[in-house]
Amino acid sequence: MNKKYLLSLSSLLFLLACVNTQKVAIKEQPPNIVIILADDLGYSDLGCYGGVANTPNLNQLAAEGIRFTDFYAAASNCSPSRVGLLTGRSPSKVGMYNYMPPKHPMHLKAEETTIAEVVQQKGYKTGHFGKWHVSHLQSDQPQPIDQGFDYSLGTSNNAQPSHLNPTNFVRNGQAVGEMKGYSCQIIVEEAIQWLTETVTKKDPFLLYLAFHEPHKKVASPPDLTAKYATYPKQDAEYLANVENMDDAVGKMLTALKNKGLDENTLILFASDNGSYRNGSNVPLLGGKSFVYEGGIRVPGILHWKGKIEAGQTNETPVCLTDVLPTICDLVAINPPNPTSLDGISLLPLIHKKPFNRTKPLSWFFYRTSPEMAMRIGDYVILGSDSDTVRLTHRMAQPDMDYIKNMTLENFEVYHLQSDIGQTNNIDYTTLDMGRQLKKQLVNRLKEIQAVGPYWKNLPSQKGKRRLKSEWRQLRPIGFSN
Questions:
Q1: pLDDT tens, 17-64?
Q2: Rounded to 5 degrees, what angle do the CA atoms 395, 400, 404 make?
Q3: Annotation says 104 is catalytic
Q4: Most buried of 29, 118, 159, 474, CB within 10 angstroms?
Q5: Is 133 noted as a catalytic residue in this protein?
Q6: Buried (b) or exposed (e) across 271-282, using 16+ Cβ within 10 A?
Q7: 3-state helix, strand, coil in the chain (%, to 5)
Q8: Which entry of 18, 48, 104, 133 is annotated as an active-site residue?
Q9: What CA–CA distance (Å, rounded) separates 57 from 43?
Q10: What pTM value is reported for the model?
Q11: Helices (H), 29-71
């Protein structure tokens, strides 16, 4: 009896050890990462930020995670902000100091390390779906595959001719032709199919879902537009556009749940900059392309089931440049060139530990005025170039000529905690820290001027190019237009 008892006890202990080992293995499984980026979505467009658009899926995502009140884009317009997200660096230092116009040589350089390249080192499968806009697709400039994405369906810039039945999508280096439906639904359906055909529960993945909505030219389902009939036509189409995007987010969340992938998936939702629409950035000053709060402060939601306590509202200033350092922290890998990063890991906020930013958040856009902004604590300081001669000619002369010769002469300071609408410009000389604020802002401009490249003199870069035939080999069976 004793021997049988000991044998049974040994068997039980062995089984318990196996179960515990499995639990440890599950616990140590690296998280999946889903980054959802809206295009030109304003601070107050979502229901959970006081907006009138019907956004139940994003509202729920916020209710189950962290809703940031002071979340910032990396820049006040498209291309620079996306570069900041992908690299964790101030986009002006990387050389993306403006949106990327057609045929312009400016692009994200091959030697820059992206979030996708970081996680590939840990065996992640990576997919990009939607707007790219950091290089021209089907060109000699680095493509998504060169920047760490195994799979890509996207556009160089906006969906053309509109969100409905776009004709300019490129899949893994090959033009697709017209795709039926609305852009947000098209990219979500393809992302879900990629997950189905490529990813298993054992495969960690990074999914970058970059919507075109609600950037112009807007196209929205008529049944959704009709729900906002009390608004002017353009507003109704815009609000319906936001709702259609929210519906696409809901399909992605449902797919993750149905595939059992929601249990260990970190989801970030944000916008690349503020909205161009009046009323979408309330109560902030300004909008897209301005470094006032309305151009750079955006909705920001962080969700991680079982890891992030639900129902949080966080007032800590955070930024898209924080994404890469956060991912490095998540997957336990040393960040690339850490001294060159401008972001900081957000994991301390998730774990409710001290969060200390050493480099102030800053923004630069030289085609509007003020040209620079920097946030330190509850204060933001903005600087303008007062040289009217350069201001008059900056649209005509080479970009970097203007940037390297501009100076900051006029300054505005606002205390954001008490003046979120930036209505009370404080004389910086009256503040104990005023001169320090000015010095830091001027020094940040000098950093940009020191490293900014003259793109017209740079050869095209093919650093990590693959043959187009390799792109075709990446296309899973079953995809159609």
A1: 554 444 333 446 889 999 999 999 999 999 999 999 999 999 999 999
A2: 110
A3: no
A4: 159
A5: yes
A6: bbbbbbbeebbb
A7: 35, 15, 45
A8: 133
A9: 17
A10: 0.89
A11: 56-63
